[in-house]
Structure formats: structure tokens, C-alpha cells
Amino acid sequence: MKVLVVKLSSLGDVVHVMPAVQDMRRAVPGVQIDWVVEKNFAPLVRRCEGVGRVVECELRQWRKSPLSAQTRRAWQAFKAELQSQAYDAVIDLQGLTKSALVAWLARLAPRGKRYALANQTEGSSYEAPTRWVADVAVLVEPHIHAVTRSRELCARALGYALDVLPSGGRLDYGLHLHAFPAQPRVVALVHGTSRSDKLWPIEYWIELGGRLIHDGFRLGLPHGNAEEQARSEHLAQVFGAAAIVWPRMSLDALAVQLAQTSGVIGVDSGLSHLAVALDLPHVQLYNFDTAWRTGPIGSARQMAVHANPEPDVATVWQAWTQVLAA
Questions:
Q1: Which of 205, 207, 214, 208 is nearest to 185 (CA)?
Q2: Which of 4, 135, 178, 207 is deepest in the core (most CB within 10 A)?
Q3: What pLDDT, on the 0 to 100 scale, is given for residue 113?
Q4: Cut 0.85: pTM above it
Q5: Which of 173, 6, 174, 172 is nearest to 89 (CA)?
Q6: Contact 147/171 with Cβ under 8 angstroms?
Q7: Under 8 Å CB-to-CB from 13, ≥6 apart: which residues?
């Protein structure tokens, strides 16, 4: 059986689909799973066990100049690659007009079908074309975790029973990049996020970092843009030799770097969700009560902490000691 997964972006959303890929591998013998994704996330998807062909697109970029000759050439090349194989099942796990377009363009095998969500779930974006394009629209529980939603849709599409958790008691994301930390006693502080209302106060990071250093940890400070780099550099100045600002690197290289640490403490961001997928000891910080739909599930090594306006340092520290003990 050939299956095409359509999940284009963003980092956290892409990561949340990976357990569904592992479900399909276990439940459907010999299944071939291909994936359409935005180019920026393609290297990470290629590291997901069980994914064969990765079809890259740049819809975000193409929309900026849809009529340019370069965009037209890139679009035609994308369509040709997408349609070079026929699929028994095309599963739109994004639920947006852009993903519906990709699913509609994909080529079906004889008796192949397109599957998509029939309804919006709480806290997620949803657009009606995903339902119109589908041959089978699957109705799911509106109050559902993002990981479970993808797992449920794939199970219903391919007709297998969904275990609450696979054997071993934890979700498998198929990202096995390390056997042991190559940077022992390093904790990555993921302080950056695309939304300012998800940030944690800088003075809290300073206090938390001091506690970690006192316990013998060194600190890794990643960043993805100029603002985050400035924050990392400020923290490094405060912490001195016990902290290092990581260089700006590709997502693929960053995943490898992150996998080599002893753990991660971070705000609600794509990088924090990646830490979950890597099965690292991890505390995820939420200023909003949304951890139920995107926070860590299925592992005592990972915990979400929520408070309004933000969790305090003592609570985060207690969570960190718990995940380390686990």
C-alpha cells in the first residue's frame, strides 16, 4: 500500500504527525509512506523512520510572487514530482486550503481515496476545502490533542485499531538521533518563540540558569533570529563560562545538536516540540492553558507547566527535578 501524508508546516505541527507514521508502519505490513512538506522542514522529515519519498514545496515563498517565471517553473516541477507516483491513500493532516490543493493534485491509484478531517478541533485552524476535496471526511472528537488527532485520522483512513500508547509505554516519533548525550550535563534553554505572549521573563531564565549551573549543568543557548540571538548573548554574559551561545544552524543540524544534550527546558515552540520527539528530559512552559492539546504526552520524562501570566521558577524547577528522576 502507498500512502501520501500531506502536512506542510510548521515545525511543531510536522513533529506532531510523526507518531502517526510509526502507527502506520506497525499496523500496515509493507506500507510505503511518502510526505509532502515545506522545504524548510524536509531534512527533519527525512530523518523520520518509515518515510520514503519526501516531496518538497515552497508554498509560503511562491505566494509572494505567484506570477513570476521562477515561481511558475518551481510550481510545475513540484506538480510533476508530486504526480510521479499514484497512491492508495492521500491523507490531508493539515486541514487548510493549501493542503487540500496539494491533496487534490496528488495522483490516486485505481480505487485510491483522499482522506481529511471533517471538522475543526479546538484551538486548531481549519478551512472547508479540505472537506470538499476528500473522498472520505473523518469526524473526530473536537477536544483532542494534536498528536492524537493525526493518529486517529490515519487509523480511521487505513482501517486499523489505534492503541492508546504503543508497546513500551511512550509515543514513538521515529527520530532516533543519539544513543547517549555527546554533550553531557548540558541543558538547552529554548527561550525563543514566534509569539511574544509565549515568552518567559528574562529574569526567570537567569534565576533558573543559576540553579542549573549550581547543580553542575552547563547551558546551551540556541537562537533562530536576531532577537533570539541577542537574548542568548545577554544570558551568556550573565552566566559566564557555564553557558555557550550555539551558532545559527539548519534545522537538521539543530536537531542533532539538541539530541546530544542532557535535556531541554523551553517555552511552547517548535523546538520544544522537537525535544519531545527526541525523548529528551524536557519541561515545556505555557502561559496559556493549551498544553492539553500540544504539550508532552505519554512520557514521565517530559512535563508541561502552565500558569497565568506565566509559571514561576520554583514550579519549573520542581518539574525539572521530576523529569530527571523519571
A1: 214
A2: 4
A3: 98
A4: yes
A5: 6
A6: yes
A7: 7, 94, 146
User: What CATH topology corresponds to 2-158?
Assistant: Rossmann fold (3.40.50)
Share of the chain above pLDDT 90, in %: 91
pLDDT of residue 180: 76
Q: Among the residues of the chain, which ranges form H helices? A: 11-27, 42-46, 59-62, 69-82, 97-105, 129-133, 146-158, 202-214, 226-239, 251-259, 270-277, 291-294, 313-325
Residues of the chain with pLDDT under 70: 165-169, 179
Residues contacting 147, CB < 8 A, separation 6+? 16, 19, 20, 171, 297
Q: Euclidean distance between the first and final Cα of the chain, in Å?
A: 39
The pLDDT of residue 205: 98
Q: How many CA atoms lie within 13 A of 154 on its CB side?
A: 31
Domain spans in the chain, listed from the N-terminal domain onward: 2-158, 186-325
CB-facing half-sphere around the CA of 34: CA atoms within 13 A: 22
Q: Which three cell numbers mark 28? A: 500496515
Q: What is the CATH number of domain 186-325?
A: 3.40.50.2000
For residue 108, give the nearest of 89, 92, 136 by alpha carbon: 89
From the CB of residue 192, how many other CB atoms can be counted at a distance below 10 Å? 23
Residue carrying the nine cell digits 555557550: 244
pLDDT score for 170: 80
Name which of 54, 115, 68, 63 is nearest 89 in CA terms.
115
Percent helix, strand and coil across the chain, each to the nearest 5: 40, 20, 35
